[in-house]
Write a structure and sequence with these properties.
Number of helices: 2
Radius of gyration: 21 Å
Distance between the termini: 65 Å
Oligomer: single chain
Number of strands: 10
Shape: globular
Strand content: 25-35%
């Protein structure tokens, strides 16, 4: 094998690796400039002028109130990104809050660009995700437990306890995306649904 061909293979391998790697930050922080007009569109938002960065850019109260669960599935999910929480910009993170009433359910969905760490603060939840081999993974988690939903895999959860549920999530993407599967009209709600989709006797 010629040295030219070997060099070409090494160059192509290195180039692919560079292109696929997540880029590192070039500065400590880059809070979102929410007032800037965007003329070029890319993954991150424009940064604020460093001289205008304040403590408030790194704090949010967006998740301290319960979401509206007055709907057919008795649940609410609120995702907060760098568009709402400036300090998240360029860090590859989003956060979320999930509220579930008794017999409530978060409908099947997946995040094409993020894995999700789901921390249960209050209640009892049956969590489910399905991998690309159609293997079903299920667990009943209680307050203080954490479950991982891998990137791009279908997942959902339901309140199997006797009290409302509060959970918080961290997603490892600035723009995780959410792709819902089907609509609420395709699914029953309440304990009958839970009995049908789970392997547990509740």
């Amino acid at each position: 094998m010629s040295s030219t061909l070997i060099f070409f293979i090494i160059f192509c391998t290195a180039s692919i690796g560079i292109c696929l790697a997540d880029r590192d930050n070039l500065q400590d922080t880059c809070p979102t400039n929410t007032t800037a007009t965007r003329t070029v569109f890319f993954d991150d938002f424009p940064c604020k002028n460093p001289s205008s960065i304040t403590d408030a850019d790194f704090k949010t109260s967006s998740l301290n109130r319960a979401g509206d669960t007055n709907n057919s599935v008795r649940s609410s999910v609120k995702i907060v990104t760098a568009a709402d929480f400036p300090g998240l910009n360029t860090l590859g993170l989003s956060i979320a809050r999930t509220d579930l009433e008794v017999d409530g359910m978060v409908m099947p969905h997946f995040h094409p660009r993020a894995s999700e760490l789901f921390f249960l603060r209050k209640g009892t939840v049956l969590v489910t995700f399905i991998d690309t081999n159609n293997t079903v993974f299920q667990a009943i988690i209680k307050a203080g437990d954490v479950i991982l939903f891998p990137r791009g895999l279908l997942h959902f959860c339901s309140n199997t306890g006797s009290e409302s549920v509060i959970a918080f999530s961290v997603l490892n993407s600035q723009k995780p995306g959410t792709v819902s599967v089907g609509s609420t009209s395709m699914f029953e709600t309440g304990s009958e649904l839970i009995d049908k989709i789970t392997m547990y006797e509740l």
